[in-house]
Each structure stands twice: as C-alpha cells, then as structure tokens.
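Q: CYFA0S09e02828g1_1, please. Structure only.
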Amino acid sequence: MSFESDICLYNLTLRQRDSSIGSCAGNFSGKKSQEIITATSNRITVLKPDTSTGKLVSLLSKQVFAIIRSISNFKIAGSGKDYLAVTSDAGNFTVLELDLPNNRFITLFNEPYHKSGIRRLSPGNEIAVDPNGRAVLLSAVERNKLVYVMNRDSDNQLTIASPLEANRSKVLAIKTIGLEVNYENPQFASIEVDYGDYEDQNEDVNDFTHSLTFYELDLGLNTVVRKHSETIPQTSNFLLPVPCGPDSGSTSGSPGPGGAIVCAANIVLYRNLYGDKISVSIPKTDKQQDEDVYVVAGVTHQMKGGFFFLLQTNFGDIFKVELPPDRTLVISYFDTIPVCTSIIVLKSGFLYADTEYGDKYFYQFEKLGRDETFASSTENYSPEALTFTRSDLENITPIDVIPAINPIFDSVLSTDDTSAKIYAASGINDTASLKLLQYGLPITEVVESDLPGPAHRVWTTRLTRADEHDKYLVISFIDTTLVLSIGENVEEVSDSGLATNEETLQIQQIGRESLAQIHGNGIRIIKDSEVVNEWLPPAGIKITVSASTNRQLAISLSNNELVYFEVDENDRLVEWNERKEMPSRITSLALGEIPEGLIRSPFLVVGDQDKIMRVLSTDPSNVLELVVMQSLSGVPVSTLVCFMNGELCVNLGLDNGVFARTKLDASGQLYETRTKYLGSKPVLLSKCMKNGENVVLAFSNKTWAISDFNNLKISSVLVPPLNSGTMFNSDDCTDGVVGVYKRKLVIFTIDDYANDISLNSLELKSTPKRLTQHGDHLFISDSGKTSHIEKFNTDTNDMDAQIDLAENQKIITTAVVNFESKGESYVLCSVATNYQSSGVFSESFIYTYTMDLELVHKTTLSGIAYSIVAFQGKALLGIKNNLRLYDMGLKQLLCKTTSFLDTVSNIVRIDAQGNRVVVGDLRESVTFLTFNAKLNEFIPFVDDTLPRHITSMKMVDYNTVVGGDKFGNIFLLRCSDEVSRTGEDSTLVRTKDKLYNGAPFKLDNVCHIFIEDIATSFNKGLLSQGGREVITYAGLQGTLGVLVPFLTRSDIKFFKALEKAMRSYVPDLTGRMNLQYRGYYQPVKNVVDGDFVETFNDLDEDLKKKISDEVGKSVGDIMGKIFDVRALSI
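A: Structure for CYFA0S09e02828g1_1:
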C-alpha cells in the first residue's frame, strides 16, 4: 500500500520580502570603500553606492534558510576587512566573511549557544560589539548574556574563544550596545528591567524600574563583571554609544567623553560610569503635544575632530544631538523621513534609510543641520515644552529609491491575453499605495517616433570593422528599405548605396570596410557609399534566407540550394565552388560568432520545412558537410548562434511559438536542450548586448529576453509586441535596443536583467484594507486614519470614483455581490464606528452602494461582518460564529437565514462554490458547510484536526482549500471524495455524531510548508500564456510566491530525491537544517522547497557532481528540470 499523495506542490518565491530586521556598514570586501549589508529575516544583501551615478547597487544577495534575529559588523584591529556577526533561530553564533569575487559568503564560525528556535532565554535577540572588535556580546530577552572574545592567530586568521556568561535571573534586557573605551577592557551597556519583586503579584504592575547597567569584560581575568547600574526613566528604550576622545586615548580622533546616550519618552539623556547626568527634551510639533515621542532609530557619526548623533522618532522626525565639551546636550531638528529600523551614515557623505515599511531611501548630505538649537544641562530633569515646525528636506537630498511593497494587506491576480498582473494593497497611511506588479523586464524608453508604414525588420550596422558605434539604422518595409544615419541627429540617408527599392533580408558589415545588403534579388556589396560588387541569383530564382558574420555569408535560394561565401585575403566576398541542395525548403540559417583564435565560424546551422535542424561544417576541407542533425517540434523560422555564459548556443524560434536553446560543442554535437512556449505566433530571434555579454531577443505575441549571465533566464520585456528588434549602440546610448511595431520605431534600454518583476505604484488616500475585483475595475477599501472606497479602472489606471466615510467609521471589508432578485451588482461595505484594535466598537452596519459608489441604503448589524461573499444570488456574511444570508431590499438588506456554528468562534474568511461554503475561523481553522435549501440552513460536515489561526484562504476546487495562518504556515486541506458525497446529503450529515467536538468528518492535511510570512491573500490563475495554472500568495512582509503543482509522479519523485540530496550536502550559512526550517510548526508535507532547490545552480561543480550522483541524473538534466518548472509556470 502506498501512502504517497497524488498532490505535490513546488513552492517558489517570486519576490522576496522587504521588511528589514537591521542594517550595518563596513569594509566587508577588504577595500577602502564601505558596503552596506541589510538583512531581512531570511536574506542577506550587500549594497554599495555607485560613485559614478550615486545609486545603490546590489552586489550580492543570499537567502538564508533560517530566521535571522540580529546582525552586526566588527573588525579586528589590524584586519583589513569587516566580518558579519549573525544570530538566528539555528541557535548558533555565526560569523560570515564576504567573498565578492566568488559571489558568496563564507561561514567562518557556527558556534552553538542555545537550543534552536526563538526563545526568550536564547541569547541571540541582540548583538553588541566592542568598537575595536575584541568582543561580541549576545543578549537574550531574559537572563542570559554571552560574551565571545575575538582575536587573530599567527596566520592572521580570525579566532573565537569559548563564551563567557553574564547571566542575571529575572532580568529583562530592552537594549544592549558596545561602548567606546579605546583599548581599555571592553564595556557594554544595557537597559534592563528586574521583575523579581513583582512576579508573585497577581495584579497588573505598570511601574517596573528600568536600569542602565554597565558590564565590563576583564581580559586579564577572562571574566565579565557588572560594573555599575543606575535608575533611568521607565520609558527608556534606546541606546547609542558616545565616542571616547583623544583625552581617553581613542584612535577615532573624535573628542568625546564616552558613555551612552539614553532615549526615553520625550527625553534624551547622557549617562556614563562616572555619574554624569545630562538631559534634554525632544522637541514636538503642535500636533504631537499630547502624545509621547520615542526614539526608534539612531546612529553615531564620527568625523575628524568631532561627532554627532542622529535620532529618529516614531513620527519620522530626525534630530541632531551634540555633546559639546562643556557637557551640555544640544538638540536640533534635522529633517523628516519615513520611520526606519536602521539609519546608516557613510563616510562618503551618504545616508541610507532602512525603513520599517515601504520604499528604502538613499540620501546625500547637503549640510549638517540648522542653526536653531535647544540645549539643557540639568541634572534633575524637568520636562520642557520644546516645539519645532517641520519643513521639506533641507539637509539631505534623496538620490535613489529601492522599491518595496511591504506591508501587503491584500492582492488580486488579473490575467489577460498577453500578461498577468498582480495588484497589491500596500503601505500604511502616508505611504499607502496600490502596487501593480507585472512579471517582465522594465525598460527605459529613449525615443519613440512614427514610421511611414508598417515595418517588418530593423538592423543597425557599422560601416567599417574599426567603428566603435553603429552608423546606419536600416528599416525594411514591403518592397522598400529606409536608411537612417545614427549620430547627433537621426536623418534619412539618400546616398548610402543600398537598394532602397528592395525589401532587405539582412544587413552585415563585412570584411574591413564593406557593407553587404542581402535582398530577394541579390547581394549588394557597398564601400564608401558606392556599389563595388553585386551578386545575382539565377533567373527566376530568389534569395529566401541568409546568415552572416564579418567574414562569411550563407544564403538559401528558392530552389532549395545553399550558397556559401567567404571574404578572401583581398577583402572581397567570394562564392565557394560548390553549392549544396537541401531535401526541403530552407526556413532559417545561422552562422555563429567567430571563436577567439579562428578566422571563421566553424558551423552553419540550417533549419528546414521538415522540422529538421542540421549542423553543417564550414571547414575548407569539408565545406557544407553534415555534422549532426536533430528533429524539432516545429518548423524553425529563425535561428541564432552565439556565445552565452562562455558556451556556444543554438537558439531556435519555431513556428508553433516555442523557443528552444541547445548547446553546441567544438565537435559539433548538441546537448542540454531547453524549451519554453512564448506565444501563439512564430518566434523570431535577434541579438543584443549587456555589459559585453550576449542577450537573445525573441519576438512573438510578446517581446522576450533570453539571458545567461549565471543561469538561463527567459523573461518577457514590458514593451509593446515588437515585429523586430536588434542592438543599438551610439555615443549617447550603449547596450540599447531598437525595435519596430505597427508604424512605430522605439529605442530603449533594459537596465537590469536580474530584476524581472516590474513595479508601479499609485498613491492612495489611506491604509488599504481590501481589494475587490469586478470586471475591469478594482474597488479599494482604505481604512487607516480615515476610511474611503476608491474605484480603480485597470484599463486606464485611473480612479473613476471614490467616496469618503465619516471620521469615526472604519471599513472592515468589502465585496461585490450580484443580487439575483435585482439582476444587478452592488458594492457591500462592512463598517464599524469607534472601532478599536481590541475589537471594541459602538455600532456595526453594512453600506450598500451601486457600482458607481452611490449610496443605496444602510443595514444595521448585531456584530461586525469580517467577511462577505456572494452566494447563490445573495450576500453571505460572517458575524462572530454566525452565517447570515441577505437579499436586497428597498430600504435595507433583508436577512433570509441565520445559522449558528458552535464549532467556530469568529469567522474571518468565507469562500463558496456551488452549494458549498468554506469558512475560516480566527482560531478554529477551516470548516466545510453545505446549504440545505429546504431547511434554509448551513450545516457543517467536515473540519480540520488542528486549531489554525486563519489569516487568508481560497477554495482551489470543490473539495480543496488553500490557507495560511498567522504563524507563517501555508497548507492545503482536502475533503475526500467519499466525505464530499456524504456532505451533499445534508439530512445524513445531521444524523452523524460530531467528532472531537467538531464536525462529523475531518479534512486531510495534504500539503504543508512554513514560509515565514503571514499569507494575506491567495489567487489562482495563469502567470504566463500557455503555462500551467498556479496558486499565487502574498505575505504581509512583502513576499510574493507561487505554488506550482507537479503533473507527473516522475517529477514528484525526482524533485523529492533532489531536495533530499541537497539537504544532505548543502549546509546553510547559519547551520540551520532546511527540513527543520520549513517544518517550523508542523512537518513539511508534499511541498518541495523551490527556493532551496534553485540554489543548485549556484553550487560549485564538485558539489553538483556529488548531488547528481546521489540523484542518478546528470548535472545538465537536473538543471534542465529546475528550469522547466519555472519556464512552464511563470
């Protein structure tokens, strides 16, 4: 008996999360320039400013299959580079070294310090580093602190000693930092709360004492001692180290007294070991006077001869704080930017704002603050009402933005004939926006102009081999050719020597300084704008297809003959002695690039009407002799041979819309074929360049780019479907593309081939709550500080209508319902007045609007409706643990039935198909119900075995539902066929006994995986034309992912074997086991980790060989299988 499921999913992340846990800066590459390392909970990214453009460039991004808790950089004295300290749920203290030449991180140490998982006693919550890199302190939320002593050995390699403990029972650590003490014993400061005196009290205690505690590592005795502790304000939450100046022996050159800046509600304090106490109030705007202001991020910046602090409040305001030698704290308003988790100031004069949500910003300093300051030097603090007025950015200027889409509250997948788009409701209050994500390469348009008629083909060409840039732009129409010059001005050339009364088949710069034009009636050789030679085919015979290099030319004739030419030593194009007759009509030809050290391309690739590709030799000893042949699935209408990633590749465009690529070795043998369906039209191919590497352009229903910088990637290009295109290089535009479509000519660039998801944003009025799609419109429910409903037209990308609600009204959810009794659709909006996050509200009701957002009526409810769906021509609402069915009335909605569900507590999601309803509960997972029309009642018949906290769900089919919970799990639950048939008989269901205080039957948990993000929405549909149907999901932290179903048992078996082998041979950077990570709360089941499997392509060859031997497949076959999953679904 087999226990293997017929269902297995492939989980693949399309866009990684954006919510960062922290950032740091240092010389990680060992060079003088600084890099920024930013970390999300499962990815580490290295960024570096581009000195020429001022933009941030991503140098490296590595996924970590663990939950990263904290990161920090440190540098050992005398070392030429910074190292990265990482703590994670693996329970290891990880030290990483950046190896940029090999595009990787090297794990130097994985020192176990606690059990795996995130626990309050696990000392990985914070990392505090001695500024001189001598010690690293790991702090837990409660009790435990570990100090690691770092050093170098005789080979200048980093060493780490066994940890020293600094534990204090019943003490909570709020914030911990390393202090500047020069080369005295390393010291650390921590905000702590001792709850020992309160733990036995039953009543709530709100007056815990906060202490600032100083710890010192005695390097001589190898012990950690608590050196000093003093009481600080109860609201203290943030610390910054103060530089220790030359008087104290500092090597920083910044005069400073040492100690720490302590930040509490509405106040900034200075404290040190010697009892100095200085305080200053945090200025507020007029609107903030009744609210507490907290510092949430900050940075200490040291300059030659001075230093200052930048502190950001929870309102986004940045204040500059100075500590002059006269021991006064001076504070002044600096600027206002989005609230950050980390602020990085680079020595080169840039500021990186690692925001909590929304886009990340990169600023350049213009000046260092205002003259208007506030100062205080009182030891006994008394609150002062300091006020300031916000202004536009004065001291910093934004020069780059890294797009981000977190948090995502809802998403909708919209698919048309050519592309799929994902609309995401993102952002909070001022950053609220509707994000439009489209799978494809974004372009930067340089110019677009009209043409005199519909163009078929376009070429660019140089006039001599020595030219650096293209000189002519040649456009082919029906029976005519247009020649334009490329320079400061694009002008028509009348004396080019080209036959403009012919339809051009190809243009090629040939030999040293000649130009060849191939057209249906012959070949024209032009030199210095004059025709120097012309080759004509026999009478009645036409040239049909051609291929060329700088020294070779091959043409096919309408009588199926193949003619081959070469350039001789006198720079003349000479026909080879013999012609070759092919068995059927030739449909495509290609001569590959000339390899280094050779004078000709060694192979000619020929495609014919019989769906055969032949590789012929061009060697003078056996010209046009067959080397190898291969049958194809369609007629090759276009062929392109070029080097990609150092290997010679044959790219084929077939008449059935399929693109195929196969590799060609030096002996002429073909291997490692990859295919992808691009559209219903025949595929035409061309070539462009990016940073000296070849990129293949494919033209079908859409325009595609095929690149292989590290791995083969086929991505659509977000440009109108081009008929033809080619590379474009001029003085002003390098690595560009010129294309033609209809009566248009367009020149554009593709800036980043790695970023294959285009992101556009539309600003919203407030925090978006829900997206509801109806035809070509989206209804957006905004529910932040104010509530609104906006009607968005997906065709025009404009807002067609909007309506504002009263200030005390909060939108809970919306839905579009087609009422059968009226024959019309209406927008239903669930609203609560005076709603609080605890669930308390004054009144709850439903607003009913027309599709133009005109109010029809209002219906009062007894509780909040958290979910509304259309069901059999009526509206089905979930109110607490009741299902209510409403029909349209004249003055309000009319309740037709109410079903009390004693197996659930609070319905938050509803989905329906036919006669079946699925509800998702806040605590009690998923329940299937059937509707008995005679009894007018919803009857539960099957539910889950686990009490999941549902955040989103969607019915995949009549018996299956996919869902996510608030702990980051995604699962697929299925009702068996037998139970499903039983569930249709509501009378039989009512007689069944309840199982485990629930429904009579239980759902099968078919699939399960941990994605470490809270799924807020699921959608089902196609992401690419001709691809397989997939499930997409969006996560709160900005994750966009896809679940791809395997179609064959052989694929399931193969990928499970590959995943198992990789788990054995591929260690994680932090030492976390992939199986444990993906099964964090429940064992992973019938889901292959596609993110992990795709790292196979980045492994070294020896490791690939070991894994391939374990799986029993070749390395090429494994890479092909991995490619096929993505190619067939995205």
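A: Brief note, in case it's useful. The two ends are 36 Å apart (CA to CA).
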